[in-house]
Amino acid sequence: MANKVKYGLKNVHYAVITENNGKITYDTPKPIPGAVSLTLSPRGERTDFYADDMLYYTASTNDGYEGDLEVALFPDDFKKDVLGYKEDANGVLFEDANAVPKSFALLFEFSGDKNAVRHVLYNVSPSRPNLQSSTKTNTSEPQTETMSIVASPAPDTGMVKAKVEPGQAQYETWYQQVYTYVEPTGA
Q: In the predicted model, is pLDDT for residue 81 greater than 90?
C-alpha cells in the first residue's frame, strides 16, 4: 500500500562516482550519520508556445534538483572522499583550496504512514558545508552543518533519481551498492 504522507529523513549515504571513458561506476555507499533535513527544488524550465490565439505547445526540461542537505556533522571520510580534504601523517585534516570536489550518488530514506521509501539521486555535486557554531549558554543547542547540492541527471543514463518501497527486490540491499536502471524484459 502506498503512503499518504511522508516525514522523517534517515539512512543518508553517499557513493563517490568514477567516470571512465563515459561509463559511470559508483563506490560502495558509506553512511552520513545525523541527517537533519533534505530540501530540494526542481531545476529546469517550461517553455510555452502560443499559436492560433492559444497555448499551442508546452515543453519542459528536467535538469534535476538543487537544495540543501543538513546534518549534525559531515564525517571526515566524506570530507576526504568528496571534498578533497587531505590528512597529514599526524592525522590533522586540511581543507585544500585547490581540491576539486567529486560528484556522488546520494541515498536516503523518507518515513511514511505505511512504508519507509528509499531513494537515490544519481549525480550530486556538492558545495562546501557551512562552518558555524555559537557559545554554550544555559542550554546546549546543537549546531548543524548544511551543504548546498545540485542533483543532475547521470551523464551516462540521464536518470535523475530512483525510489524503492518495502517488498520490492532491491529494498533490502539498497545501501550495499547504488542500484541502476535495468531495462524491462520484452520492452
A: yes
